[in-house]
Every structure is written in C-alpha cells, then in structure tokens.
Amino acid sequence: MACDFFTLETVQLKTLYVLFCIEVGTSRVHLAGVTNGPDSAWVTQQGRDLAMDLDDQQAVPKFLVCDRDLKFSGRFDEVLRAGGIRVIRTLVQAPKANAFAERWVAAVRAECLDWTLVLGRRHLEWLLRTYVDHYNKARPHRGLGLGLPEPPPREPVPVHPDEVWRRDLLAGFIDEYRGDRGMTARAGARRPR
Length: 193
Known about the structure:
alpha+beta; 8 strands
C-alpha cells in the first residue's frame, strides 16, 4: 500500500490537504481525510482509522510506503505497526519511489479536480468520495486487464443496447453506463468542451 498527501487550492485561495492510500496490487483507493492544517496528531488518527477499516475488511497489507514528511510521525508508525503493517519511508526527494500514489494524484487531477472549482473542505470531500467510488467500482484499469479494483460480486450479463442507461457523476464530467440489471457495461471520463 502507498500513502501520500496532495494539496488543492479552493476558490477562496485556501489550501486543503488530502491524505489517501492506494493498494498497489489492486489499485483500490482509500480516502483517509481532508483538512486545512494537517499535523502529526491528525495524521496519526487517520492512520488509526485506516488500520481499523482495513482490519474490518480483512485486507491488511504487509507494507505501507510513504515519504519522509514530518507529519508521518513515530506515533503514526506505531499505530500501523500495532495493526501488523510495516512502514517504509521513501528516499529524500524521490517521487518515483512512491509512483503508485503519484499516478493516482495525476489521475484524480486530470479526470476531476482540474475541471472543478472547489468551494471548501466539505465540497472537496464530496468530490473525492464520488470520484473514489467511481475509480474503485466502475473505472476500468489498464494495469488490471481493464478490470475493476472492486469487481461486482457476479459475472457481467450481456445487455441489449436498449437496456443501457447513463448516470452522470460530478455534474457530467464522468459518465457511468449500466444495464437494467445494475451491471456496469462501460464507464468513461468526459472532459468539458
């Protein structure tokens, strides 16, 4: 699993910090939290919540890769170590060492955030929850053979074109296409003209 922060400016020019984790093997993203002032106590609490969520899902990774940011304190490491996760720090100024996290940041920016004016923290949380849900459950991934990080519980059923309907996400930036049985027929991102 890889973990990192990225920042975003709101329309009022306030900086928001987003903490997320991505499972390297499945490309499944976990949104840890959004704040305007991360400190080591906040990051430690997010690590505690993440460890409990992963334990509940019985998907505890062996390793968590993160950079040497001071916000990832010793208490953060202890919380994850107690959950059976070993924290591995990347080298100083080596963004390629955390390439999976960097790639997801590029994807969320290109497909969602670069096209949206963010009003505040709650608005950004809603945008990211919606995008992460789409990313995990409906967006095909090349690295997974066009599969999904969270595949549906049953095999797709052939659907007649008349039975397909489109659902807009994020005000039409992303379209999901589904058959009347609720199975994803195809999904894609659309950019504004």
